[in-house]
Amino acid sequence: MLSWLFPSTCELCGETAEETICPACLASLPRIPAPICLHCGAPTAGQQTDPDRCEECADQARPFTLARQALRQTPEAMQLIYALKYHHALHLARPLARLLHELWERTPHLRAHTDWVLVPVPVTLKKLYSRGFNQAGELARHLAEFRQLRVLELLERRDTGVLSQTRLTARARRLNAMRAYHRKRAHWLARRRSYPARIVLVDDVFTTGSTARACAIQLRKLPGVKEVVALSLVRIGA
Ligand SMILES: [Zn+2]
Ligand SMILES: [Zn+2]
């Protein structure tokens, strides 16, 4: 009834559609091309001797089991992320979460288990109040509905005084991320006896992996947590 009264239009092509990205536009967004690094999901075509591992992953600690991203960094993908984050286009979260749902179907390790719990990468309280929502939380909420899973907000992001990870060097990003992400104090104090064994960390973008690494390190300190998989919508630089 509501959709009949207020039909939505696709954010990309402007056609009337059931959701705000039509199925044709969703299908046309470029996915990460194979072959990929089996650890971090980076495209490895034409790279080196081992197409299963990118050079970055060869000499980095691996607190997460694997990371996968749905989309390449195209102008259309970035337009959607910007609209969601900065123009309050909350309605985009649901069609975008469909891409994570599809990525899940293409990831054998995720399909091999049924006991996953989703944890969104947090934003600072300041951002939460000014924006009104956490975009990763919205993606996780819809993905959880599609896959019939639970969402647990186990992490918090502290204000480190750095405005954005985007302009930092790789080393500075790692240090900043380690200072920024922590286990939620409320949960810690509640002394939960056990936490989910398998966690999927949900985020909108994946750049160097420093956020995913910092979050995975924190989550794996919780009793009972065995592994963390990082799932993001867009891979920056791919
Ligand atoms: Zn469209
Ligand atoms: Zn890699």
Task: Summarize the structure in short.
This protein is of the alpha/beta class. The protein is built from eleven helices and nine strands. It binds zinc ion (2 copies).
Model description:
- The protein has one domain.
- α5 crosses α8 and α9 (170-180) packs parallel to α11.
- Strands 3-9-8-4-5 form a 5-stranded parallel beta sheet, with helices on both faces. A two-stranded antiparallel ribbon has the order 1-2.
- The protein has helices spanning 2-5, 23-28, 55-58, 75-86, 93-105, 108-111, 125-131, 135-147, 170-180, 185-189, 210-219, and strands spanning 8-9, 16-17, 66-72, 116-120, 150-151, 155-157, 181-183, 198-206, 227-235.
- It is α/β, with parallel strands linked by helices.
- A hairpin with a 6-residue loop joins β1 (8-9) and β2 (16-17).
- The chain has 11 helices and 9 strands.
- One zinc ion (ZN) binds next to α2.
How many domains? The number is: 1
- State the share of residues found in helices, binned by percent: 25-40%
Low confidence ranges: none
Overall spatial form: globular
Name the hetero compounds present: zinc ion
How are the strands of the largest sheet arranged? 3-9-8-4-5
The span between the termini is 41 Å
Task: Give average pLDDT, whole number.
Answer: 90
Order of helices and strands: HEEHHEHHHEHHEEHEHEHE
**Counted beta strands:** 9
Task: Give the assembly state of these chains.
Answer: single chain
Taking all Cα atoms into account, the compactness measure Rg is 18 Å
Q: Give the DSSP E fraction (strand runs of 2 or more residues).
A: 15-25%
